[in-house]
Amino acid sequence: MTRPKALLSWSSGKDAAWALHILQQSEDVEVVGLLTTTNAAFERVAMHGVREALLEAQAEAAGLPLWKVPLPWPCPNEAYEALMAQACARAVADGIEVMAFGDLFLEDVREYRIQKLAGTGLKPRFPIWNSDTASLARSMLAAGLKATLTCVDPRALAASFAGRDFDAQLLADLPAGVDPCGERGEFHSFAWDGPMFQHPVPVQRGDVVERDGFIFADLVPA
User: What pTM value is reported for the model?
Assistant: First the structure.
């Protein structure tokens, strides 16, 4: 029996990477591409601030085609939804039946995705939904996932966390109330090694800057 083809919504971060790992082990779907929104003005992954060159290196390491959706800057919600609708239509035309997401527990985000996929011909899939995030973070590390924090919300976490590796020490240092996976937006990451990749993505740290109220640690190809 042929498995339904799936696109994975790809932020470049650890949760998306772990969702890919789970789907790779599943017999329910076949992941055939990574779908990422980018900031067309800055050529970076939206919100995470990761350079497109590193995004492309990730997709190569995962052995999957990269579907980029360049967003204008600034990007009104209507423009975002129109561009995503085009991407969904392209996916359906290519025989893709499933759109997967690495969401963990934010109900409003999940409902938004379900609503926007309704009637597109794509079924939503949430392979790591409702995971206990403390246990999940430890499972990621035990499996060899390696990631670096690229964006920190200084209202939730000290700026010094930007550029740190997502590791056991970081988990121990997180203040009480900060989700171990940063699911409430406390931090975002770039995954550069792990069981979902065929080889590590060579990366090195660059400058740390403040922009639009967030702290960004620039990563550059090594």
Answer: 0.96
Cβ contacts of 114 within 8 Å, gap of 6 or more: 124
Write the single-letter amino acid at 189: S
Residue-wise DSSP of 60-121? HHHT--EEEEEE-SS--HHHHHHHHHHHHHHHHHTTEEEEE----S-HHHHHHHHHHHTTTT
CATH class belonging to 5-221: alpha beta
Specify whether the CB–CB gap between 10 and 34 falls below 8 A.
yes
| CA-wise closest residue to 34 among 75, 91, 83 | 91
pLDDT digits (tens, 9 = 90+) for 122-171: 999 999 999 999 999 999 999 999 999 999 999 999 999 999 999 999 99
Look up residue 86 and give its two tokens: 């085009």
Q: Tell me the pLDDT tens digit for each residue of 107-135.
A: 999 999 999 999 999 999 999 999 999 99
Dist CA 39 CA 135 (whole Å): 33
